Prior knowledge:
The structure holds two protein chains of two kinds.
Chain A: H1 2-7, H2 21-30, H3 32-55, E1 65-66, E2 71-72, H4 75-105, H5 109-124, H6 127-153, H7 168-192, H8 196-204, H9 209-220, H10 222-238, H11 241-246, H12 264-271, H13 279-316
Antiparallel strand pairs in A: 1-2
Helix pairs in contact in A: 3-13, 4-7, 4-10, 4-12, 5-7, 6-7, 7-10, 8-9, 10-13, 12-13
Chain B: H1 3-44, H2 48-51, H3 65-95, H4 100-113, H5 117-129, H6 137-161, H7 165-173, H8 178-189, H9 191-207, H10 234-242, H11 247-284
Amino acid sequence: xxxxxxxxxxxxxxxxxxxxxxxxxxxxxxxxxxxxxxxxxxxxxxxxxxxxxxxxxxxxxxxxxxxxxxxxxxxxxxxxxxxxxxxxxxxxxxxxxxxxxxxxxxxxxxxxxxxxxxxxxxxxxxxxxxxxxxxxxxxxxxxxxxxxxxxxxxxxxxxxxxxxxxxxxxxxxxxxxxxxxxxxxxxxxxxxxxxxxxxxxxxxxxxxxxxxxxxxxxxxxxxxxxxxxxxxxxxxxxxxxxxxxxxxxxxxxxxxxxxxxxxxxxxxxxxxxxxxxxxxxxxxxxxxxxxxxxxxxxxxxxxxxxxxxxxxxxxxx
Amino acid sequence: xxxxxxxxxxxxxxxxxxxxxxxxxxxxxxxxxxxxxxxxxxxxxxxxxxxxxxxxxxxxxxxxxxxxxxxxxxxxxxxxxxxxxxxxxxxxxxxxxxxxxxxxxxxxxxxxxxxxxxxxxxxxxxxxxxxxxxxxxxxxxxxxxxxxxxxxxxxxxxxxxxxxxxxxxxxxxxxxxxxxxxxxxxxxxxxxxxxxxxxxxxxxxxxxxxxxxxxxxxxxxxxxxxxxxxxxxxxxxxxxxxxxxxxxxxxxxxxxxxxxxxxxxxxxxxxxxxxxxxxxxxxxx
Lengths: 317, 285
């Protein structure tokens, strides 16, 4: 009997583990996204090499852009990109946060839905449509009804003189409209994620609606709203067509906030198709490289901020 | 006025400010739509606007048929490339989302969504225009596909994640292999959400100008072969005509803008409707 027991296998052999080929294939297909991102940066860098070699780091602080003498510096374009984006943020943040508060906690469900849809449709309208509208409607209106009155009344501040139909200010105005949906949607989600208990505690202590919102809700949503702002900044930095149509396209550091200027993306959009030789297109691609590196960093920072706050909210809820 | 009523008044005042700013945010939407309709309608009402191609300034009867057909070709080709890869990528993220590699894919997709489209255009130029020495529709399509890809990946992931675990587990319990569970069970159940993402990506691609500027470049002629020809697109028409000094072509730019806006908004509203059905269906599962 004992020998019989010894000869029979004591356990069922473990099932052969089938390699998950499906998973491997899917992982490979999904790899397209990160690979493309890396390849974009590598290719742009490789194309920009002639300009990088020729100008070195001086490219970033040079102020001249002359295709004839082949001397190129990026500073005016960098300045224009950064200024328009921050001016747009300054205009859009108060409005965006107000709409986010409205969508997160005020208004009836139906009205909220309607306004939310409206703001999202704002994001759906193509950039070029904003461009043509800004060129023929917004910029002339803003020139007459905003820029001229401001420069007349506050003209003692040098930066608020020299109104122009196409320039920094009007580009910032259209940018502000275009980044509003990003700002609003992300801020709304963050404000919604603030635990209900916090608000109820404040109300129970006798705080008014505004005191609750300003001293309790917004501070706990602060990091997320900051993330939304950075995300919107990323969009503003890279926006091309609408800005190109109203910024005035002058390659110089603008003397006032109304003056014509240029942005990284607009220079590329306007000049790249006609750029000849090796140094000129390489310099334009280097502008593109600067732009993409900045936006990638800005986007990663924003995503980390937004994700970390929604995680915190989940944990505390 | 005592302190408490001052606090109440302040609260009401800020409430009014919040409402006012919310209304202010909707003003641009109304104005953009209003002016696009008012300025774009007159040219659109001529039937030859849709049947004819470009005619030089002064020659009557010019139209945007070449741009409409061209946009269809460019976006159609881009969809052929981006949709299968995007959907599979999204299913991967939803099904194997905790893998470390998935986190990288997710981050890359989110960053790619925020990448300036002009930089994507430069990339497509360097890779698909420079080697063959001529601009072509296909280079533009590839640039558009890169734009669409991350949108499809992320919306597909969201749609698949909505499907209850029970469905997946019952499939696995019946002995179905993983891929059949994903492809034949989960994906059809998530179809409306996936379609939403695809529609949003198509809408986005139809409206993009910057990636086309130095890839397909545009064309005044009616051209359809993406491998050899520069192909015109609707957003390019708006951009190019709007900056010309001729009134008749500026009018056509507004007309093209109207066509574009109607198309994009229609796709968006359609996707919204599909998504609402999806959420209702998911509730029933």
